[in-house]
């Protein structure tokens, strides 16, 4: 029996957050490497929305300009990108994308735009904070499974208990 090596193609989209779990990104990087795919790390900022700028290009704007939060400018995006770089390293080619709005929709949109092989997300947070998030908004993986046709991979998040 001969084994064939598939050519590198496509990408794997993974959702990231400020202060994300490094284990999820490391797992996504390993998966992308095994698939011969580029890793596209996407932070979907729920405190911002996408509008069309004067030149027709999409522009991220805060949902509530008077409220503080994650969408307070490029410094948060730069911090998240540094966190991604530290976790992923040079094991696989990767990109960082900032999107806005509802997380599942943002991930699905980037996956569609990039023709991703699949979307990876971290497992939900355990405990009361995770239960509260699922009760209010449902799980991102569940929303993705109903929103689009790409496979959704849920990566173990062994550090989640420490994130509470």
TrEMBL record:
UniProt cross-references to Pfam families, sorted A to Z: Usp (PF00582)
Name of the protein described by the UniProt record: UspA domain-containing protein
CDD domains, A to Z: USP-like
Organism per entry: Paraoerskovia sediminicola
Residue intervals of the UspA domain: 13-154
InterPro entries: Rossmann-like_a/b/a_fold, UspA
SUPFAM superfamilies in the cross-refs: Adenine nucleotide alpha hydrolases-like (SSF52402)
